[in-house]
Amino acid sequence: MKRLLLSTFLSLTLSIPAYAGDNDINMKRFPSEQELFGDLIRDLGTAMSYRAVAPAEPLDSPLGIDVGLVVTSSKMKNELDGWKTATSANGQDTIYNSEIHVRKVLPLGFDVGAYFGSVSDSNMKSMGGEIRYAILNDSNLTPALAVRGSYKAMSGVDDLDLSTAGLELSISKVVFMAKPYAGLGAIHYEGEGTGIDNYKFESERDTLAKYFLGVNFDMGPVNFAAEADKTGENSSYKAKFGVRW
C-alpha cells in the first residue's frame, strides 16, 4: 500500500508537460528594465520559497521517514508587471507548485529533508533541502518548538537563476488527532538573469518576513496537513498528503 502511494506521488510530480505552457518564462523577450526584473524576482522568490507544511513536533514513526506530496497555490502579487512580461502576458495570476518532500529523523533532535517539484503549465522546476532541530518536544507542560533552515534553487528556465534560503521558528501542540502549528521567520531570495539582446541584469536580492499557520492530522501511517502563509506581500496556501514509515 505504501509503495503504491509513493508511486502515485512520483507520477503526479514528475509528469511534466513537454509542450509550452501559459506559465513558461522566456527571458529572451524580457526588456532591459531593471525595475521590471526586480518585480519578477520578488514574485518568484516568494512563490518558490520552501514551505515545510509540518508541525514542530519530530516525526513519530518506526523508521522516522516521511514522504509527502505538497501542492502550493501562490498569488503573483506583481502579475501585471514582471510576471506578465516574462510569460508574454499569458501567465496565470495564481501558480501551483507540486513537490515531493522526503524527511528523515536523525539522533539528538535533528531532522533532515529534501524536496523537488515543478510548477504546473510551466518550465519552472525546483529542488532543495532542509535541516531542523527540535528545541522542545510536545509534553503535558510544553508545546513542541523547533528551528528550521532551508535552501531551494529554481531550474528549467534559460537565462534565469533563482535561489532562496530560509530560517524559521515553529511551535505546535497535539490536540486529539490534530496538531495545530504556527511560526515565523525570514526568507532571503536572490536572482540573476539575462534579457533581450543578452542584456545582463543586476542581481536582485532581498530578505522578507514570513508568518504561517497550519494544522496536521495523523491517521496511522497517513497524514494530512493544510497551511497558509504570508511572505512579504504575497500569500500562499498549501495542502500535503504524506505517508510515514
Task: Tell me about this structure.
- By secondary structure, the protein is mainly β.
- The chain has a single domain, classed as Porin.
- The protein has 3 helices and 10 strands; from the N terminus they run ααβαβββββββββ.
- Strands 1-2-3-4-5-6-7-8-9-10 form a 10-stranded antiparallel barrel.
What keyword list fits this structure?
10-stranded antiparallel beta barrel, 245 residues, mainly beta, Porin, 14% helix
Quickly give the structural class.
mainly beta
Classify the helix fraction into a percent range.
Answer: 10-25%
* Average pLDDT number: 89
The string of secondary-structure elements, in order, is HHEHEEEEEEEEE
Strand content: over 45%
In total, the number of domains comes to 1
Judging from the principal axes of the Cα atoms, what is the shape? elongated
Number of DSSP E strands: 10
Distance between the termini: 12 Å
Chain-wise SSE layout:
Blueprint: H1 2-14, H2 34-47, E1 65-75, H3 79-86, E2 94-105, E3 110-119, E4 125-136, E5 144-155, E6 160-172, E7 178-193, E8 204-219, E9 222-231, E10 234-244
Antiparallel strand pairs: 1-2, 1-10, 2-3, 3-4, 4-5, 5-6, 6-7, 7-8, 8-9, 9-10
How do you describe this structure in short?
It is built from three helices and ten strands; from the N terminus they run ααβαβββββββββ. It is mainly beta. A hairpin with a 7-residue loop joins strand 4 and strand 5.
